[in-house]
Amino acid sequence: MRMLNLLSVVLLMLFSSQIFAQEKMSKEEKKKWKNELKTYKKDLNALKILKEEHAEYRQENRDLEEKLNRLEASQSMGDSRMVQKDEEIAALNNQLMNAQMTIQQLHEQKPDNEMSDKGMLMGLIYRVQIGAYEKTSIPDNLNSDGDLKLEQEDGLQKVVIGQFRDYSKALELQKHIKKIGVKDAWVVPYNDGQRITIEEAKAMGGMKG
Q: What is the reported pTM?
């Protein structure tokens, strides 16, 4: 027991000397610590408790530092995963945009020579009608695989020529036909081989030019 008391006094003196050496204290601080030292010399059990508490606090501090390190590591991992997810989302968006562009290109590159069962281009086109006859019958052998076609509609035999994607080209042909004497020539729109109205063609975005 006496040895324990002696050891406690030595530890207190060492602890006090370290405090004095670590930082320069004022006279008031030195006086305060000397009074503390005297107190602990008289009450070695209090010194023992102080040292034990100091050791506990140091251990708690180490535990807190470890927890903080784990939290920082977890946050860093979470940030890394978030960056990875953002990169994956950006890659998916790029793939979607590329797919949309491909679909658009395929749509625009649809062959213009796709024909209907009536021998006309599919999609919206324009032809020029040069006559509609009720009594005069035009021989069917004049109907060819070329640009001139005979149509039977509403009891009339209609003669149409040309096939144009561009409405302005059809207008040019109409003007030329009128100049050579066919005064009733006019532009007729078709969609997928079927004759449609001017209003329907406009609603489809045609009749421009």
A: 0.44
